[in-house]
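Minutes, project check-in
Item: structure for the 122-residue chain
Input as provided by the requester:
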Amino acid sequence: MKQIEVLIVEDSVYSADLNVRVLRKAGFTIQHKVVASKKAMQKALADKQWDVILSDNNMRGFNALQALEVRNQSEPLIPFVIVSEDIKEGDLRKATEWGCNAYISKENLDELGQLVAQMLKV
């Protein structure tokens, strides 16, 4: 499959690694960066062009809606996927209104590769 550049917004190294492993298992060659704050995400977006952003929702001091807002301010066309086990229905609805492309529960993480392939049309 195709090489993709993935920005992972996640404060758990374990969870970020799981995202990478699932995508590799799905056949992707991945270059990635993990960030866990608004400032780090802004820098990552300024430094490089990303193919997709994967964002947890439940981080210390930062969440998926805030990450989506950062994306919208600088690179609104990058596909954005919330990968989380904890998001309120109202927040998910707001994320969709703000341009979030998809939500996947960490319980269904094995579906991430197929979802990314569909979004990137590869």
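Outcome recorded: The first strand starts at residue 3 and ends at 9.
No further action items on this chain.
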